[in-house]
User: Fold this.
Amino acid sequence: MSTELPTHHNPFSEVNEKVAIAGDFLHLKPGLVQAMSTCEREVVIAIPLRRGDDVEVLTGYRVQHSSARGPRKGGIRFHQDVDLNEVRALASLMTWKTALIDVPFGGAKGGVAVDATQLSAIEKEEIIRRWTRSLVHVLGHHRDIPAPDLGTDAKTMAWLMDEYHRLEGFQPACVTGKPVGLFGAAGREEATGRGVAHIAAATLKENGVKVNGARVVVQGFGNVGKYAALICEELGMKVIAVSDVTGGVVNRKGLDIKSLMVHPTLASADVNERVGAAEVLEIECDVLIPAALGGVINDGNVDRIKADFIVEGANQPITSSADKKLRAAGSIIVPDILANSGGVMGSYFEWTQNIQEFSWPIEKFRRELDTRMEQAFTNTHKVSKKYKTDLRTAAFIVAVERVSQAFEMRGSLV
Ligand code: NAD
Assistant:
């Protein structure tokens, strides 16, 4: 079975469908909904990369969806499937995420269409430096602040910061997700996964299911998936399967996540039971955490998903059509803009620390993260009860209301 996306999957239209539904609930003017469904700025660049004796020209992107509530914020993805439409969708999701958790940012996203697993360190550095040089005029700590995403990490952000400093002078708040030894924040690396795990536990409690011993499956064992699995385990859940691009590993009694984390990929892990990367999604469990790519739960496999709760660690892991089927079958889905918002919350903490030149101990970082994630979770539930709707629609109602109010208060539109 493959995780190939159905050809009709259009991630940006799917986000805008949710914006339109929220707009209807809030009785917003059509022009305002249209403005919030359109990206403010889209920049496409060519990145020539030396490869052997030749040059390969890659395509890079930065899409700024909204600055209504503050400087644009969003990650940079290195993946072969990156295209303008996907970057638009991810940029707009950042607008809704930052509004939902009430941090003073707008939304943006960037990417380069390249297979990150095939790049040497020096090639990766050349790409991110070129990306930064070409886009420096639209970046900056009060304009647009990148962060890591699929295929990029703290090291990539350090190169980005270094290139930015060469061009514009010292301003470490120009990018988040940096190494802790280089203006990063202790706690940021684990923040997305930590948020996912705490939201999973809160969802089980809210629905009267025991957290202790709850069976968890995680697809994707990178930044988000590793820490989500580790912290689920710390909270008493039993992680029975995880997968990465090389395949999945299973132990029905519970995997030892720390021992898996030392392997560069799961291919070298010492386990008895293995399954294909995509089959992991179909294992019967209480909580399924897709934490890799978008669109992995779609019409092709939705009938075989056997999880009561799905907590979206990745962005848009479920297509709109599969989402409807799962909800009709009784699954409870915690949407990406809530479930994985610990990442941008953590980036906000890093950004404020850089601007204030005052660093927090990790305990404070974790305390603030847990408190504010819980507030976002409680508020989303309250709104879902008020409007008698699912959690995704409720999350969009909260976010769209905040962004539309910012638009109106600025006085420049409709
Ligand atoms: P990452 O590059 O660190 O890890 C991605 C993981 O997915 C890797 O383990 C990779 O092997 C695996 N993978 C790739 N293709 C797969 C497949 N077909 N089947 C199974 N596993 C596969 O990326 P990340 O930062 O962990 O991001 C993962 C997802 O979470 C993305 O959708 C990203 O947008 C989202 N996200 C990330 C953050 C963050 O702070 N890093 C924040 C919010 C959302």
